[in-house]
């Protein structure tokens, strides 16, 4: 267990001795689910409503993918990818109003908040995220961030965090106080994403979106389990809910769990 969370400075790849466990004295909410289910937008809004931190773990996979591409590392060489990722300190901002991600490159902090959303990063992130040593590395860094938000919250914030990503409920924070699988029917997820990315949900836009997110989910599902709820994970299906209704449904799960006294069992 690390005694001094280092989440506000650059977050270097931890050594095995530095492996941390997540403390459970503060509120930890873990949210996973397929692409376009609303993990990041709903989790952000839920974190803001609860007054706690927000962690987008996908942004971390995206940031190290940016770094690997930038360095020209051969993506088919898993060892080289993992070795390079280990050299890249990340700086993750967990304010739900303005989450950020940056990497330290040659001693200088490079803000990647926008860069991680480019098509190039999106097209390559699954390959990087599939490298087991990269996953081990980032899982440890994510646990450090979660722990930091619990034991040393930013001024004005409550201790705790809403953390989202495809392996949060099962691997990163299986002991979280509240674990939610956020899902929606594929056609609804595609329409929302097409609307978001292209400003339209017409048939051509949907076809382009389908190629992007269905294929990414197919590849990602080889390394992470995010389509079915693990034991103790509550499913929130937003197919028939609007955005605010989905946030309210997640907050309702949190409230019922907290009232019921914490982890384990079904809501
Ligand atoms: N219940 C909802 N009703 C309407 N729109 C929603 C709802 N939930 C999410 N959205 C919208 O759907 C889009 C996709 O959501 P978001 O990016 O949060 O998904 P995600 O699960 O994080 O996806 P990915 O894993 O691909 O990053 C966003 O435009 C978001 O505002
Ligand atoms: N906990 C996580 C989070 C993300 N990934 C991978 C899989 C995704 O394709 C990619 C980007 O995530 P997104 O920003 O779209 O949520 O990162 C993962 O493997 N585990």
From TrEMBL:
UniProt feature coiled coil, ranges: none
Q: What is its main location?
A: cytoplasm
EC number(s) from the headed UniProt entry: 2.7.4.25
Write the record's keywords in alphabetical order, separated by commas: ATP-binding, Cytoplasm, Kinase, Nucleotide-binding, Transferase
Which InterPro entries does the UniProt entry name for this protein? Answer: Cytidylate_kin (IPR003136), Cytidylate_kinase_dom (IPR011994), P-loop_NTPase (IPR027417)
Q: Which reaction does it catalyse?
A: dCMP + ATP = dCDP + ADP; CMP + ATP = CDP + ADP
Entry-linked Pfam families: Cytidylate_kin
Q: Which SUPFAM superfamilies match?
A: P-loop containing nucleoside triphosphate hydrolases
UniProt entry tagged with the keyword NADP: no
Which residues hold ATP?
A: 33-41
Q: Which GO terms describe its molecular function?
A: kinase activity
The UniProt record lists the Cytidylate kinase domain at: 29-255
In its keyword annotation, does this UniProt entry include Hydrolase? no
Q: Where does the UniProt annotation locate this protein?
A: Cytoplasm
Which family is annotated? Belongs to the cytidylate kinase family. Type 1 subfamily.
NCBIfam families linked: cmk
Protein's recorded name? Cytidylate kinase
| Species of provenance | Kineococcus halophytocola
